[in-house]
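Project outcomes to date are best conveyed with an example. Our students and postdoctoral researchers have been running inverse folding experiments weekly, and each run begins with a structure described purely in tokens. The record below, which covers 309 residues, was selected by the lab manager from last quarter's runs and is presented without edits.
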């Protein structure tokens, strides 16, 4: 009887995959990334040093040439002072109705309503849930600003505008954004994506459909997506990863665009599942559906029961 194994790639990312933002503090300021469940790529921002962040620095930021589109979008994001605090409940299901799984900026406050951290996320809900689990004593309430067209430049400017507003009002950088503070931004080992084969030119000893069948039946939750879990390559795949991350479920991902290690998977999976599009999510060997179905189940509070089966 032929034997076979699944291989995996290793990826080390932070809470989000990184794409560097413009430098705010001095040249050599280190960059850190933080959670975003979804592009695909996460967003990076510089840690700031309160001893070096001066009025001159802020002037440099505001006078730098910014695309008009980014400024227009940011103008639609309310100021921190204009937003109401949202209490972060221990019950994540309650929070789902108040905090979107969208891209944007968020401000985390402690039990005294003191602002502790301003972050960017491709999935605000998932980010806040992650903070709530890791630093519950510092994450009592939040303010949220959704960026409707969340390209890198627009997200960057939204974050900068909130940072500048807070600094202008208090004269201080939020503690979590100061250089050297690793409370909110930590590098983590991302679970590797699975590969069906060792390589495109390796002769398979079993049919590809058999490999797919074994994969979905031996793993509780499997998401066939475009791109990797750390860098999804389409908005639907990005959203699926964000939902699964936010649910805290253990899941496997496999990249249907990886023609080197998953050659022929896209067409074979369509016939196996009788589902024409991607992503595709399987739970306990059964097809649940794509992004729309998973999103609907999340909104209706049905995910917990799905993953408990």
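After processing, the design step wrote out the following sequence:
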């Amino acid at each position: 009887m032929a034997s076979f194994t699944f291989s995996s790639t290793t990826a080390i990312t932070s809470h989000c995959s990184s794409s560097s933002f413009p430098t705010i503090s001095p040249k050599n300021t280190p960059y850190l990334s933080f959670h975003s469940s979804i592009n695909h790529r996460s967003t990076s921002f510089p840690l700031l040093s309160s001893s070096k962040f001066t009025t001159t620095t802020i002037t440099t930021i505001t006078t730098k040439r910014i695309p008009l589109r980014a400024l227009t979008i940011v103008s639609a994001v309310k100021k921190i002072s204009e937003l109401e605090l949202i209490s972060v409940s221990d019950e994540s299901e309650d929070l789902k109705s108040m905090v979107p799984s969208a891209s944007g900026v968020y401000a985390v406050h402690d039990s005294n309503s003191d602002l502790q951290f301003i972050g960017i996320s491709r999935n605000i809900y998932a980010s806040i849930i992650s903070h709530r689990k890791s630093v519950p004593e510092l994450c009592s309430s939040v303010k949220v600003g959704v960026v409707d067209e969340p390209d890198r430049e627009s997200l960057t400017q939204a974050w900068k505008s909130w940072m500048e507003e807070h600094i202008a009002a208090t004269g201080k950088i939020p503690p979590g954004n100061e250089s050297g503070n690793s409370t909110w931004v930590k590098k983590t080992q991302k679970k590797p994506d699975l590969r069906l084969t060792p390589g495109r030119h390796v002769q398979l000893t079993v049919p590809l459909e058999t490999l797919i069948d074994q994969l979905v039946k031996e793993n509780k939750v499997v998401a066939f997506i475009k791109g990797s879990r750390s860098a999804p390559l389409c908005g639907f795949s990005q959203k699926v990863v964000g939902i699964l991350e936010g649910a805290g479920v253990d899941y496997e991902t496999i990249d249907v665009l990886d023609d080197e290690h998953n050659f022929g998977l896209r067409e074979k999976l369509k016939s196996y599942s009788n589902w024409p599009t991607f992503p595709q999510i399987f739970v306990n060997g059964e097809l649940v559906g794509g992004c729309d179905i998973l999103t609907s189940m999340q909104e209706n509070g049905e995910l917990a029961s799905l993953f408990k089966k």
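The longest strand covers residues 115-121. The chain has a mean pLDDT of 78. The training component of this project remains on track.
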